[in-house]
Amino acid sequence: MTSLDVLIVILYVTFAVYVIYRARQSLLAQKAANRAKASAGLVIVKPEQKALDEALERQLGPIALQNAVKIKVNGGIAFEDTVELLSLTIDNQSTTYAVYVNWKESWLTNARSQSRSIARLTPNEGASQSTSMIPPERTLKESFTVMTSEGAQPLPETMVLHPMRQAGKKDPKSSVLLSLSVQLRAVSQYNQNHLLALSCPINFAIPNEEELQAWQSMMKRGSAKVG
Q: Is-contact 198 165, C-beta < 8 A?
Protein backbone atom coordinates (compact mmCIF):
# COMPACT_ATOMS: atom_id res chain seq x y z
CA MET A 1 0.00 0.00 0.00
CA THR A 2 1.41 3.32 -1.03
CA SER A 3 1.49 6.41 1.14
CA LEU A 4 -1.30 7.83 -1.03
CA ASP A 5 -3.47 4.80 -0.31
CA VAL A 6 -2.83 5.20 3.41
CA LEU A 7 -3.78 8.86 3.22
CA ILE A 8 -7.01 8.01 1.37
CA VAL A 9 -7.91 5.41 4.01
CA ILE A 10 -7.22 7.89 6.82
CA LEU A 11 -9.34 10.57 5.13
CA TYR A 12 -12.15 8.07 4.53
CA VAL A 13 -12.19 6.86 8.14
CA THR A 14 -12.01 10.43 9.43
CA PHE A 15 -14.93 11.47 7.21
CA ALA A 16 -16.99 8.41 8.24
CA VAL A 17 -16.37 9.08 11.94
CA TYR A 18 -17.34 12.74 11.46
CA VAL A 19 -20.56 11.81 9.66
CA ILE A 20 -21.50 9.34 12.40
CA TYR A 21 -20.67 11.94 15.07
CA ARG A 22 -22.82 14.61 13.40
CA ALA A 23 -25.67 12.15 12.92
CA ARG A 24 -25.50 11.18 16.58
CA GLN A 25 -25.44 14.82 17.68
CA SER A 26 -28.39 15.59 15.44
CA LEU A 27 -30.33 12.63 16.86
CA LEU A 28 -29.59 13.70 20.43
CA ALA A 29 -30.59 17.28 19.64
CA GLN A 30 -33.85 16.08 18.08
CA LYS A 31 -34.61 13.91 21.11
CA ALA A 32 -33.90 16.83 23.42
CA ALA A 33 -36.16 19.08 21.34
CA ASN A 34 -38.96 16.51 21.35
CA ARG A 35 -38.66 16.06 25.11
CA ALA A 36 -38.64 19.82 25.68
CA LYS A 37 -41.76 20.18 23.54
CA ALA A 38 -43.55 17.31 25.28
CA SER A 39 -42.66 18.51 28.77
CA ALA A 40 -43.25 22.23 28.16
CA GLY A 41 -45.15 23.70 31.07
CA LEU A 42 -44.83 20.58 33.22
CA VAL A 43 -43.28 20.43 36.68
CA ILE A 44 -42.63 17.28 38.66
CA VAL A 45 -42.95 17.42 42.44
CA LYS A 46 -40.61 15.01 44.23
CA PRO A 47 -40.87 14.88 48.03
CA GLU A 48 -37.99 13.14 49.80
CA GLN A 49 -40.39 10.90 51.68
CA LYS A 50 -37.61 8.82 53.23
CA ALA A 51 -36.33 11.84 55.16
CA LEU A 52 -39.80 12.46 56.62
CA ASP A 53 -40.27 8.78 57.50
CA GLU A 54 -36.91 8.72 59.29
CA ALA A 55 -37.77 11.87 61.26
CA LEU A 56 -41.04 10.29 62.38
CA GLU A 57 -39.28 7.08 63.36
CA ARG A 58 -36.67 8.93 65.43
CA GLN A 59 -39.26 10.89 67.38
CA LEU A 60 -42.02 8.29 67.75
CA GLY A 61 -39.73 5.42 68.76
CA PRO A 62 -38.65 6.80 72.18
CA ILE A 63 -42.29 7.40 73.19
CA ALA A 64 -43.42 3.90 72.13
CA LEU A 65 -45.55 5.21 69.26
CA GLN A 66 -43.48 3.98 66.35
CA ASN A 67 -45.60 3.53 63.20
CA ALA A 68 -48.64 4.97 64.99
CA VAL A 69 -48.60 8.06 62.75
CA LYS A 70 -47.76 8.17 59.06
CA ILE A 71 -47.43 11.40 57.08
CA LYS A 72 -47.02 11.39 53.32
CA VAL A 73 -46.25 14.46 51.22
CA ASN A 74 -47.95 13.90 47.89
CA GLY A 75 -45.96 14.34 44.69
CA GLY A 76 -46.45 13.88 40.96
CA ILE A 77 -46.53 15.87 37.72
CA ALA A 78 -48.64 18.98 37.20
CA PHE A 79 -48.90 21.80 34.73
CA GLU A 80 -46.87 24.87 35.66
CA ASP A 81 -49.95 27.03 36.11
CA THR A 82 -51.61 24.52 38.43
CA VAL A 83 -48.70 23.95 40.85
CA GLU A 84 -50.30 26.40 43.23
CA LEU A 85 -50.37 24.23 46.32
CA LEU A 86 -49.02 21.09 47.88
CA SER A 87 -50.80 18.37 49.82
CA LEU A 88 -50.09 15.82 52.50
CA THR A 89 -51.92 12.88 53.99
CA ILE A 90 -51.85 12.20 57.75
CA ASP A 91 -52.79 8.68 58.82
CA ASN A 92 -53.34 8.42 62.57
CA GLN A 93 -53.26 4.71 63.39
CA SER A 94 -53.10 5.30 67.14
CA THR A 95 -56.06 4.32 69.27
CA THR A 96 -55.25 6.70 72.14
CA TYR A 97 -53.76 9.86 70.60
CA ALA A 98 -55.17 12.64 68.47
CA VAL A 99 -52.78 14.32 66.01
CA TYR A 100 -52.69 18.11 65.62
CA VAL A 101 -50.91 20.00 62.82
CA ASN A 102 -50.01 23.57 63.83
CA TRP A 103 -49.98 25.44 60.51
CA LYS A 104 -48.91 28.75 62.07
CA GLU A 105 -45.70 27.11 63.24
CA SER A 106 -45.11 25.21 59.99
CA TRP A 107 -42.99 26.60 57.16
CA LEU A 108 -41.67 26.31 53.65
CA THR A 109 -38.09 27.49 53.12
CA ASN A 110 -36.45 27.69 49.70
CA ALA A 111 -32.77 27.40 48.74
CA ARG A 112 -32.29 31.15 49.21
CA SER A 113 -33.37 30.79 52.88
CA GLN A 114 -36.64 32.61 52.22
CA SER A 115 -39.25 31.21 54.61
CA ARG A 116 -43.03 31.46 54.49
CA SER A 117 -45.56 30.13 56.93
CA ILE A 118 -48.17 27.89 55.35
CA ALA A 119 -51.94 27.65 55.44
CA ARG A 120 -54.31 24.83 54.68
CA LEU A 121 -57.13 25.25 52.19
CA THR A 122 -60.68 24.48 53.25
CA PRO A 123 -63.93 24.49 51.24
CA ASN A 124 -65.62 27.03 53.53
CA GLU A 125 -62.85 29.16 55.00
CA GLY A 126 -60.46 29.28 52.05
CA ALA A 127 -56.91 29.65 53.38
CA SER A 128 -56.76 29.03 57.10
CA GLN A 129 -53.97 28.60 59.65
CA SER A 130 -56.28 27.04 62.23
CA THR A 131 -54.92 23.77 63.60
CA SER A 132 -55.91 20.52 61.91
CA MET A 133 -57.02 17.66 64.19
CA ILE A 134 -56.94 13.99 63.22
CA PRO A 135 -58.78 11.76 65.73
CA PRO A 136 -57.49 8.27 66.57
CA GLU A 137 -57.77 5.76 63.73
CA ARG A 138 -58.62 8.44 61.17
CA THR A 139 -56.93 9.76 58.02
CA LEU A 140 -56.94 13.33 56.76
CA LYS A 141 -55.66 14.88 53.54
CA GLU A 142 -54.81 18.58 53.58
CA SER A 143 -53.81 20.89 50.74
CA PHE A 144 -51.72 23.90 51.64
CA THR A 145 -50.01 26.96 50.21
CA VAL A 146 -47.84 29.79 51.51
CA MET A 147 -48.90 32.81 53.56
CA THR A 148 -47.51 36.33 53.19
CA SER A 149 -48.36 39.70 54.71
CA GLU A 150 -50.96 39.98 51.93
CA GLY A 151 -52.56 36.65 52.77
CA ALA A 152 -52.38 33.31 51.00
CA GLN A 153 -50.34 33.32 47.80
CA PRO A 154 -50.00 30.77 45.00
CA LEU A 155 -46.95 28.61 45.42
CA PRO A 156 -45.21 28.93 42.00
CA GLU A 157 -43.82 32.44 41.87
CA THR A 158 -43.06 32.85 45.55
CA MET A 159 -41.28 29.56 46.18
CA VAL A 160 -40.87 27.35 43.12
CA LEU A 161 -40.93 28.70 39.58
CA HIS A 162 -38.99 31.91 40.10
CA PRO A 163 -35.96 30.07 41.55
CA MET A 164 -36.18 27.60 38.64
CA ARG A 165 -36.15 30.42 36.09
CA GLN A 166 -33.26 32.10 37.84
CA ALA A 167 -31.20 28.92 37.91
CA GLY A 168 -29.96 29.43 34.34
CA LYS A 169 -29.41 25.72 33.82
CA LYS A 170 -30.25 23.35 31.00
CA ASP A 171 -32.53 21.35 33.32
CA PRO A 172 -33.77 23.91 35.87
CA LYS A 173 -34.55 22.68 39.35
CA SER A 174 -35.56 24.16 42.67
CA SER A 175 -36.40 22.86 46.11
CA VAL A 176 -38.10 23.82 49.34
CA LEU A 177 -37.91 22.42 52.85
CA LEU A 178 -41.25 21.67 54.48
CA SER A 179 -41.07 22.05 58.28
CA LEU A 180 -44.08 20.70 60.14
CA SER A 181 -45.08 21.28 63.76
CA VAL A 182 -47.12 18.29 64.92
CA GLN A 183 -48.49 17.54 68.37
CA LEU A 184 -49.82 14.28 69.79
CA ARG A 185 -52.36 14.50 72.61
CA ALA A 186 -53.67 11.54 74.57
CA VAL A 187 -57.46 11.62 74.33
CA SER A 188 -57.96 10.45 77.91
CA GLN A 189 -55.00 12.25 79.52
CA TYR A 190 -54.85 15.84 78.34
CA ASN A 191 -51.58 16.47 80.15
CA GLN A 192 -49.82 13.79 78.09
CA ASN A 193 -48.59 15.60 74.99
CA HIS A 194 -45.73 15.02 72.58
CA LEU A 195 -44.43 17.68 70.19
CA LEU A 196 -42.86 16.55 66.90
CA ALA A 197 -40.68 18.79 64.72
CA LEU A 198 -40.63 17.22 61.26
CA SER A 199 -39.06 18.21 57.96
CA CYS A 200 -39.24 16.99 54.38
CA PRO A 201 -37.29 18.37 51.39
CA ILE A 202 -39.48 18.78 48.27
CA ASN A 203 -37.79 19.03 44.87
CA PHE A 204 -39.21 20.53 41.69
CA ALA A 205 -37.86 19.81 38.21
CA ILE A 206 -38.73 19.26 34.58
CA PRO A 207 -39.78 15.59 34.22
CA ASN A 208 -37.26 13.24 32.61
CA GLU A 209 -38.17 10.97 29.71
CA GLU A 210 -39.24 8.02 31.88
CA GLU A 211 -41.38 10.22 34.15
CA LEU A 212 -42.90 11.93 31.12
CA GLN A 213 -43.84 8.61 29.50
CA ALA A 214 -45.44 7.41 32.73
CA TRP A 215 -47.44 10.64 32.99
CA GLN A 216 -48.56 10.41 29.33
CA SER A 217 -49.66 6.80 29.86
CA MET A 218 -51.64 7.81 32.93
CA MET A 219 -53.32 10.63 31.00
CA LYS A 220 -54.22 8.25 28.16
CA ARG A 221 -55.76 5.77 30.60
CA GLY A 222 -57.75 8.61 32.16
CA SER A 223 -58.99 9.76 28.76
CA ALA A 224 -59.99 6.21 27.83
CA LYS A 225 -62.04 5.85 31.02
CA VAL A 226 -63.83 9.14 30.36
CA GLY A 227 -64.54 8.11 26.78
A: no
